Amino acid sequence: MAGKSGRTISATPEKSWKKMIFGWEGILILIFIAINIYFSIVSPSYQFANILREMPKYLTEVFLLLPMVYILVLGEIDISVGAIVCLSATMSCMASNNGMPFPAVALVCILVGTACGIVNGIVLINFTELPPMIVTLATQIIFRGIAEIALGSGGSISLSNADGFRSIAGKVGNLVPYIFFLVVIAAIIYGVVLAKTTFGRNIYAIGSNRIAAFYAGVHVQKIRLICYTLLGFMSGIAALFLTSVLYGANTTTGNGFEMDAIAMAVFGGVSNIGGKGRMPGAIISAFIIMCLRIGLGQRNTNPQVILLILGALLILSVLLPNISASLNLKKKTVK
Amino acid sequence: MKENKSILKKITGSREASLIIVLIILCIVIQFRSPSFLTLKSILDMLKNNANTMILTLGMLGVLLIGGIDISIASTLAFSGMSVGMLLKYGIISNTFLLFVIAISIGVLCGLLVGLVISRGKVLPIIATMGFMYIYRAMAYLIGNSQWASAENLGDFKNFALGKVLGLNNVIWIVIICYAIFFIVMKWTKTGRKVYAVGSNMEAAQISGINVKNIQLLVYTVMGTLAGLCGALTTAVYSSAQPNMAYAKEMDVIAACVIGGVSMSGGRGSVGGALLGSLILAIIAKALPLVGIDSIAQNTVKGVIILVVIVLNVLTQRAMDKNNLKGREM
């Protein structure tokens, strides 16, 4: 297949160890190792057990990251996830305070999230002209607005009986929290589905060229609906675990989660032009940011400095490859 | 086919005209429910309190016109507002004019940096501005050093928002001046037309000799400038400066643009539309409590209205396309 520039693209991507090590994932692993070495030298409390203890709070965002990668690979964006988390957490707290048993509460939480995702998806597939950014902006305001109405004038709710939530916040062998295993399992499932199944390849196809994918027989709208629903579903799960850490919810729960999830994905090499990026990179970058937050938090750094670093990382991770690519291009044209 | 183009069709065909009708209907309905709405004082208060959204909508119009987006503006606003607040709090500078200049120059620098990264670094606008959203917000917190400026710190500066020239509040004058400048620039100058050209078809604009990169840089710098100006204005109007000021304001601004008919994919939109969009949002926010809707439900209603407007927009567009096709049939 000859491209615009006349170069040919082989059907099978060439595999080489060079690509593995010098690729983006390799760099990310190096950064991950470097950060861990740095913190374990400068901070005596940066130990395995402590990291694992602080992890659950940050791991909830990884649930959002996984389907967000799908959405970004599709070339779209969803900024309503923070609001979905807020709404699901609020509803589950209310259900729990009304005396529902914990399995029912968990079901409510996940169903609310899934329903929100379906709403996003249905609006987007019926009105394909609308940009996802603006639709999810509107639904973000609506979902958080519904949570605000439900919470009433106080603006917050706390669990009267947190026994059920404590049971999912437990740890295996008093060390590794359950959520860690769940995140790992979910990450493997999402990664394999994206890389190895027809569904995953279809997502890449839509992201690279939606019209071509449509003519090739890919059910574009069906896959978009599934992706947005998945994001809602995972938001419900994230809300459940977030509640098990916070024992309550308020109107600002989940503020900025959508940006964090997108930032992790972009830092991991997923771009929202679509059709580019892999799951492992996104997950490694999630752990880099997590370690950064825990490490800087232990050193009593101002939490705003962490935001500053996060923003700079986000920009540099896209800017630097772009600059080096344009420099390479200049070199080639000079020759 | 000529007789088909009646006045009615012209009105439904023109985005601004249909917006004006929506605005008038809104005003009449609200006026029936609450007679205190359409008084001069109430309207001027509303304009003053929404000055920052109205001004930022202009900048966002430019950004959306070239097919970009800027979600860092609320953070830029907080950064410049906090800088002004801190300068006043520690008594370093108390000259109102000088403070405005400082706020605006902070905005220019912030916008310039965003523009450079997007135009020269070829970073996607949403990613780049998301990064700067974090960075500038963090700077606002860091410059405050967990302090904030209250009314007694602000001294003479807060009187700016109370002062009047020719019977109109200073803040409203600034809004009017900004809109006048933008209207003229976008409609009658080369630069304004270049912005439209880049938004409609970037490659065609590039080939026809427009320096696309510079236009991008310009648009984001103007956006930053207006955000910096709004930082000082917001500090004066609310007579306080907090690092979390105008949190998530960018979403209101984008919503105002979209309601005003500015296309997110670039090339379509006008200053009049931006004005009407931000006015409709402002009136909705003002009217909901007057009409008797609980203030808690305001956000939900706002979100539903945005969703309904954009969906209606698509439906009318589809109907128009269908009609156009019909016209071609023999």
Question: Any overview of this molecule?
Answer:
The complex is a heterodimer of chains A (335) and B (330). With 335 residues, chain A is mainly alpha-helical. Chain A has one domain (52-316): Orthogonal Bundle (ABC transporter involved in vitamin B12 uptake, BtuC). Chain A has helices at 17-22, 24-42, 48-73, 81-97, 102-126, 132-151, 163-168, 178-196, 198-208, 210-215, 220-246, 257-267, 279-298, 303-334; strands at 156-158, 171-172, 176-177, 248-250. In chain A, the strands form two sheets. In chain A, strands 1-4 form a two-stranded antiparallel sheet. A two-stranded antiparallel sheet of chain A has the order 2-3. The N and C termini of chain B lie close together (11 Å). Chains A and B meet through helix 6, helix 12 and helix 14 of A and helix 7, helix 13 and helix 15 of B.
Provide the residue-averaged pLDDT of chain A.
84
What is the share of helical residues of chain A?
A: over 70%
Instruction: Give the DSSP E fraction of chain B (strand runs of 2 or more residues).
Output: under 5%
Shape of chain B: globular
H/E series of chain A: HHHHHHEHEEHHHHEHHH
Could you tell me how far the N terminus lies from the C terminus of chain A, measured between alpha carbons in angstroms? 26 Å
Give me the Rg of chain A, rounded: 21 Å
Major sheet attributes of chain B: 2 strands, antiparallel
Query: Which stretches of chain B of 5+ consecutive residues score pLDDT under 50?
Result: none
User: In the CATH scheme, what's the topology name of chain A?
Assistant: ABC transporter involved in vitamin B12 uptake, BtuC
* Major β-sheet strand ordering of chain B: 1-2
Low-confidence stretches of chain A: none
**Which percent range fits the helix content of chain B?**
over 70%
Biggest β-sheet strands, sense, barrel of chain A: 2 strands, antiparallel
CATH second-level architecture of chain A: Orthogonal Bundle
Helix and strand element order of chain B: HHHHHHHHEEHHHHHHH
Strand content of chain A: under 5%
Category by helix and strand content of chain B = mainly alpha
* Mean of residue pLDDT values of chain B: 84
